[in-house]
Structures are given as structure tokens and as C-alpha cells.
Amino acid sequence: MASKDLSWKYVEQSTLEPEVIAAARTQSLELGIDPVSPATGAQLAVLAAALDASTMIEIGTGIGVSGLWLLTGAPDAHLTSIDLEADHHDVARQFFTDAGHAAARVRLITGRAADVLPRMNEASYDLVLIDADADAVLEYVEHALRLVRPGGVVVLAHALWRDSVADPARRETVTTQLRDLIAELASSPAVHVSLSPVGDGLLQLVTRRG
């Protein structure tokens, strides 16, 4: 496993993070926010670019790290991002502006995701990113699969939850929920599934057409 650890470290360190995103990451850590890793962000950018995404929704803004990565891959897309903390949105809005993203293309909604998501239009998004309250992950995935268009992508950050999911001896609630979710989705005929160990784990779902 030591060689794998070395490879994962190399992947993270070899990722070139744009200056604005690096600044947002530094401030995130100062505020106690756990942003996606640089390599995870780069993967998000690749997914957004591959989809040529025009509409994206993010559950959990933080102060903009993951949203900035998404817009790096799809700079002409419209991003909707939901977070409970208004103060976080104030900071994120400045980072989006600093990165050159027009305010009209970045919609920040302050509120509980559980209250906001039921009001969002079904099958209307190319990509849905979940990077929020781990205790509500099952509810968020259910909403995300409803919101994404056929052939669209749902991405769950922190899917390996601090290396606990891979350890069968760990039985904490979040760990068990994630482990069960991964197993259930792997056998689902409704989605293509890929689980990557990048960062803290990245679960990627593509909804099947037809």
C-alpha cells in the first residue's frame, strides 16, 4: 500500500491549481471548511469539460473551491450553488468575480439544501455535485438523480470519508451509509458507476439513457 500512497500523493502534488482557486483553498482551510483536493477539483473540471456542460448545480458551496473547478472545465456554463451559510456565499461571490466569472452565470442560493432541492427543475442539469452535509448524503443523491438529465453526471465528493469506508471495522453512521450507497448503486441498472480514490474519494454516476 505504501506505493499507492506515494502515487496518490504524486497525483495531488502534480495538479496545477489556478491562483484564484489556491487562494480560495487557503481561506477555506482557515475557516475550517474541508474543500475538495486539487486532484479532485481537476477531475471535476474534466467531467464538466467532457460534458460540455451548460447547466450545473452544486450542493455545498463552501467558499467556492469546487465551483471554481467546475467552471474551469465549463467556463460558459451556468452554475447554481446551494449553501446554508450566507457568510460563505459572500466570500465565494468575490472569488468567482476574481476568476472572471460573470455574476449572471453564478447563482448562489442561501438555504438548507433539503428545502431548496425539491423546488429545482427535474432533469434540467448536465452535472450535479454533492459536497455537503455527509449525514444527508442519501437524500442528496436521491435529489441529484432526479435533477440530472439523462446521460448527465452526478458526482459525490468525500465518498470514502476519511478512509473509513474501506475499513470494514468502521461502523459509524456516515461510513455505513456511504458503504451501503456504493454497494446499492453498483448493482443499479439506472446508472453507470465509478468510484475513484482521488482525494477523499469521488463517486461518479452517469444516468443511463432510455
3D structure, described in words:
The protein is of the alpha/beta class and 210 residues long. It has one domain (2-207): Vaccinia Virus protein VP39 (Rossmann fold), CATH 3.40.50. It contains eight helices and seven strands, in the order H-H-H-E-H-E-H-E-H-E-H-E-H-E-E. It has helices at residues 2-14, 19-30, 38-51, 65-73, 86-98, 113-116, 137-147, 173-186, and strands spanning 55-59, 78-83, 106-110, 125-130, 148-157, 191-196, 202-207. It has a seven-stranded mixed sheet, with helices on both faces. Helix 3 packs parallel to helix 4 (65-73). It is globular. The model has no long low-confidence stretch (mean pLDDT 95).
* Proportion of beta-strand residues: 15-25%
Arithmetic mean of pLDDT = 95
Task: Write down the secondary-structure element order.
Answer: HHHEHEHEHEHEHEE
Amount of helix: 40-55%
The CATH class: Alpha Beta
Q: In total, how many beta strands?
A: 7
- The CATH architecture name reads 3-Layer(aba) Sandwich
Number of helices: 8
Instruction: List the uncertain runs.
Output: none
Q: Which structural class best describes the helix and strand composition?
A: alpha/beta
Instruction: Give the count of structural domains.
Output: 1
Shape: globular
- Assign the CATH topology: Rossmann fold
Distance between the termini: 41 Å
CATH homologous superfamily (4th level) name = Vaccinia Virus protein VP39
Q: Give me the Rg, rounded.
A: 16 Å
Please state how the strands of the largest beta sheet are arranged side by side: 3-2-1-4-5-7-6
Q: Which sheet architecture does the biggest sheet show? A: 7 strands, mixed
